[in-house]
Amino acid sequence: MRIISGKHKGRRITAPEKLPVRPTTDRAKEALFSILDSRYYFDGKNVLDLFSGTGNIAFEFSSRGIERITSVDNNTNCIQFIDKTSSELNLSISTIKSDCVKYLRSCEKQFNIIFADPPYNFEDHHKIKEMIFERNLVKEDGCLIIEHDNSTSFEEENIEVRKYGAVHFSIFSF
């Protein structure tokens, strides 16, 4: 994986093979950030990256200037990799080792952007979305992005779906 833009543009990051992850493809990530760049000025914004895995998305946000990023994952090795890479690149990413659903139940902060990339076989994509909506975790004019495959669909009015091969992004605007 690589960082596409920002102060670490072109930087390749190699995650250990033992991590149980499916990083967002560079092609899909580039398309997503093209959308986000056209809608948001990142300065002063904060981001929550749920099911962080390798930290691929958090690294991209940080490289583009977002200074307040919280990455949540339940895998110790993933959290350690994000911490190690963040330190090496001098990125300010806060990590939390937690089950993402449990984290959302107790979260008291609001975020400008929430990105959730649960495993494709995760059965509670809708539960994640509902918890975020019910707990009012996205700030006004922010968005929730859920990455999923074609077996998951959302039927809301305030949704935009973008498809890049097997990768689908459902983008909910607030």
Structural class: alpha/beta
Number of domains: 1
- Overall geometry comes to globular
Radius of gyration: 15 Å
Taking all residues together, what is the mean pLDDT? Answer: 91
In short:
Helix content is 30%, strand content 26%. The chain is of the alpha/beta class and 174 residues long. The protein has a single domain, classed as Vaccinia Virus protein VP39 (Rossmann fold, 3-Layer(aba) Sandwich).
Please provide a written account of the structure.
The chain has 174 residues and is α/β, with parallel strands linked by helices. It has one domain (43-173): 3-Layer(aba) Sandwich (Rossmann fold), CATH 3.40.50. It contains five helices and seven strands. The protein has helices at residues 26-39, 56-63, 76-89, 100-106, 125-134; strands at residues 46-50, 68-73, 93-97, 111-116, 138-148, 159-164, 167-173. A seven-stranded mixed sheet has the order 3-2-1-4-5-7-6, sandwiched between helices. β4 (111-116), α5 and β5 form a beta-alpha-beta unit. The radius of gyration is 15 Å and the shape is globular. The mean pLDDT is 91.
Observed structural traits:
174 residues; alpha/beta; Rossmann fold; 7-stranded mixed sheet
Topology of helices and strands:
Layout: H1 26-39, E1 46-50, H2 56-63, E2 68-73, H3 76-89, E3 93-97, H4 100-106, E4 111-116, H5 125-134, E5 138-148, E6 159-164, E7 167-173
Parallel strand pairs: 1-2, 1-4, 2-3, 4-5
Antiparallel strand pairs: 5-7, 6-7
